[in-house]
What we know:
alpha+beta, Translation Initiation Factor IF3, four-stranded mixed β-sheet
Amino acid sequence: MAVQQDLDLVEVAPLADPPVVRIMDYGKYKYEQAVRQREARKKQSNVVVKEMKMRPKIDRHDYETKKGHVVRFLHQGSKVKVTIMFRGRETVHPELGQKLLDQLSQDVIEIAKVDVPPKLDGRNMTMVLAPLKEAIMQRTPGVVAPPRQRRAQEPRQEETEPTTQDEDEADDATARPIKVTRAEGG
Length: 186
């Protein structure tokens, strides 16, 4: 029957008793399967995790700068792992790191949610922030600077306007000197 219809006989379940076969165009079947896999790959998203490291005694301006980076990463759709590094006697006061991470999570509450709450791991305290879908969709204005534009060169006045004899003599006194070259030879 498969030869009469110019199709292929494909064994679907070889372990069944009796084995199950199907009459189909095997080339078309393989092509449709490849198309489905390609579509599935387009729809899947890669989760990128960016990391921002801080110290518990971070200055206010440095904190604002790092918070700006975190906001930019979240708007790009990346998860952000925030790490507080403790050194020396700072390890005795993990509540300072906890306070800093809580402050950061409150500052970005409109665009992110806490994916993994703060936890102490040796000398580091980490927290993971995941972007909200609304934050990815809307880009904040002013995050990306507009491209620079070149100034249009204005045409020279002497090229556009005819001048009189007196103006030419006045311009010669203030004009740049003309370079003269002479050919050497005999």
